[in-house]
Design brief:
666 residues, 27 helices, six-stranded mixed β-sheet, 21 strands, four-stranded mixed β-sheet, alpha/beta, globular
């Protein structure tokens, strides 16, 4: 029997009885602290080396058993060292349909948008492939119906696990002696089905189809919607004869790949949908749940990150002042625990943390596969010691990140583009854990226990939650099966897809034909930021040709990441009005360029570009940084007139007060 099948079999032959300790009422405050299950569980040997010792599943807590099952799937299916980029959802289905238990490969959708290019580039920088290729698909014409599309998705997921189609998947599971560890919920009318396909194909999970349209993440769901989603999972499990009713059975998690409201009305304010789902009538948890929304390129990106990436680096930020109630939230020890699992982290804590330190760290983007933040505040700002930091200062992410944020209200409205959760996810976080309301500090798992649980092979969705709580206010966005695992074997060469086009060949043709914007985009997709920055510099120096808005837009983010801030400023002023109005682009410009205002003399060009691009959501903050530099170049009367215009235009009363006070200084 091939090694892959043998280890998949090992993952599921021992399923211990369900343990419900985490669903019991928490002990009274005066009771002595009990050791966490991650402290008493036996160590789990890695299963990738030949002759690795067998795992005694019966001795493991069910939380760790689930993670071990995930790890055995992820670690033991080889991965082609090639990233495949497809143009649309149809080619995406076909590409994933070519996955097998013998090998698979990342597939990402490029719809031509700047957002898709940045997501692909972010993934490529983390995955470090031997090659990046385009694949247009087979060219086969499919009937345009919901039924056909759903059938194609189901069949592609089944083929990834070696079944001919969805009707044969149970036979394949029996052949492998494999029990799915989770279920995926999706609607073929909602573009997030793209993430559902990857989650199903990657882990061998069946899809529970529901008939709903995509909706806003804002607002609240009705109780009957929670019951319907739970019921869809339960019905599918029953039809497939998969045990699910207690945690520790076969199905212990499910991923909701829908664009839907993230809150539910509760007696003490809104509750988190992902903490309500996966519970029975007694509110006991039988499954951990994650929500994976997004359009097709975004949901595919989030799924591919979960399936193919492990964080190598981390960033821990402790914004709490030293107080008795925050003593258990220190970040040094969790950083050390994760370092033992290969996540090498930096820590920022008192006294070296605050707005200035944050901006310095964030200026050119952050390369951290895992980010933990202790803070307080509201939906659009967070406090580091005594400094309030606006969500607009959340940095560009160089590589995809898992973000764990101890902060009230950060996920209150993920559709609010100026809110903390939205900023992190828009910048590339593929997993986000945060609060929809005021949960109180003790509702958050302390960082040390979180890190120890995650390192012990419990999935991240389990590691971050406090056991024994009733449904509460913390939402989990992303793959609930995400687990720290050893890297699978890298398989050289590209997958056997007819018509693959290596990007480096397409790049040479674009440069030869002087299609510089196309060439820059390809460089970005291959993770070659310095070369994209060099291409922009050469184009800027060419006096016979103007730099097009398309070239400027393709090169702006690479210029920032390459540290060429003057070049980024030049690119930004040449971008289209639409591109400059992007919150992400404007915030990135201000984070990168703000330090140049303190130069003596100030950078005149940078000051002029920033003055022309003051952000409506941060006008007072921008003015406070820019006014002193302008005063060294302009008259006081000119600065006052500019400040008065900003004060008249802002709709934010607090910003208007700050601008009025600033005006009085000039």
């Amino acid at each position: 029997m091939p090694r892959t099948i043998a280890l998949l079999t090992l993952a599921c032959v021992l399923l211990a009885p369900c343990l419900r300790a985490q669903d019991e009422a928490p002990p009274p405050a005066e009771a002595p602290a009990q050791p966490d299950w991650s402290e008493t569980a036996p160590p789990v040997p890695e299963q990738t080396a030949p002759g690795a010792p067998a795992i005694d599943f019966a001795s493991l807590p069910p939380q760790i058993r689930l993670g071990v099952r995930v790890a055995l799937v992820r670690q033991n299916i080889p991965v082609h060292s090639t990233v495949v980029i497809v143009p649309d959802a149809s080619a995406y289905i076909e590409a994933i349909g070519e996955w097998r238990t013998e090998a698979r490969f990342p597939v990402l959708i490029d719809d031509g948008s700047a957002e898709a290019a940045e997501s692909i580039a972010r993934f490529v920088r983390a995955f470090r492939p031997d090659a990046v290729v385009r694949w247009p698909g087979s060219g086969q014409v499919w009937a345009q119906s919901i039924e056909v599309l759903r059938q194609r998705v189901d069949d592609a997921a089944a083929r990834a696990f070696g079944a001919e189609n969805r009707e044969k998947i149970r036979e394949r599971w029996e052949e492998l002696r494999f029990a799915p560890m989770g279920v995926v919920v999706a609607s073929i009318k909602d573009p997030a089905w793209a993430g559902a396909l990857a989650m199903a194909a990657g882990y061998g999970q069946p899809i529970a189809w529901v008939d709903v349209e995509p909706r806003s993440l804002a607002g609240e769901v009705a109780p009957e919607e929670i019951a319907a989603l739970n019921g869809a999972v339960a019905s599918l499990c029953e039809s497939l004869e998969l045990p699910f009713a207690g945690f520790g059975d076969a199905v212990d998690a499910f991923t909701v790949c829908l664009n839907m409201p993230t809150k539910h009305p509760g007696a003490d304010g809104p509750l988190a949908v992902t903490d309500l789902l996966g519970r029975n009538e007694q509110k006991l948890r039988w499954a951990y749940v994650g929500l994976m929304p997004g359009d097709a390129p975004t949901s595919a990106y989030r799924a591919m990150c979960s399936l193919f990436l492990n964080p190598r680096s981390g960033w821990f930020v402790d914004g709490y002042e030293s107080r008795r109630e925050t003593a258990g939230y220190d970040v040094n020890r969790p950083a050390a625990i994760l370092r033992e699992r290969g996540v090498v982290s930096v820590t920022d804590r008192s006294p070296g943390v605050g707005r200035a330190a944050w901006r310095s760290r964030a200026a050119l983007g952050v390369d951290a596969g895992f980010i933990h933040l202790n803070s307080s505040g509201q939906r659009r700002w967070f406090r580091l010691l005594k400094d309030d930091v606006d969500a607009s200062d959340i940095p560009l992410l160089r590589t995809p990140s898992i973000v764990h944020m101890i902060h009230s209200f950060s996920a209150q409205n993920p559709d609010d583009g100026q809110s903390i959760a939205a900023r992190w996810m828009d910048r590339g976080a593929y997993v986000y854990f945060g609060s929809v309301d005021e949960p109180y500090l003790r509702a958050f798992q302390n960082p040390q226990t979180m890190a120890r649980r995650w390192s012990s092979k419990a999935p991240f969705s389990i590691a971050v939650r406090v056991d024994g709580l009733e449904p509460w206010k913390l939402n989990y966005f992303g793959d609930p099966l995400l687990t720290l695992t050893s890297e699978p074997q890298r398989k050289p060469g590209a997958p056997a897809l007819s018509g693959l086009e290596p990007l480096d060949g397409l790049l040479r043709a674009a440069i030869r034909e002087r299609r510089l914007a196309d060439a820059a985009r390809m460089l970005v997709l291959m993770g070659r930021d310095e070369d994209a920055a060099g291409l922009f510099a050469a184009a800027l120096a060419d006096k016979d040709h103007e730099v097009s808005p398309e070239l400027a837009e393709a090169c702006f983010y690479p210029l920032v990441r390459a540290g060429d801030v003057p070049g980024a400023v030049s690119a930004f002023e040449r971008m289209s009005d639409r591109a400059r109005r992007s919150n992400i682009a404007a915030d990135t410009l201000w984070l990168a360029a703000r330090p140049r205002l303190a130069l003596v003399p100030p950078d005149l060009r940078t000051a002029q570009v920033l003055k022309a691009n003051v952000r409506p959501h941060a006008s007072a903050d921008d003015a406070e940084a820019l006014a002193p530099a302008l005063r060294r170049m302009e008259s006081a009367e000119s600065v006052r007139a500019w400040l008065q215009t900003l004060a008249n235009e802002t709709k934010n009363q607090k910003d208007r007060q700050r601008l009025t006070e600033l005006l009085s200084r000039y």
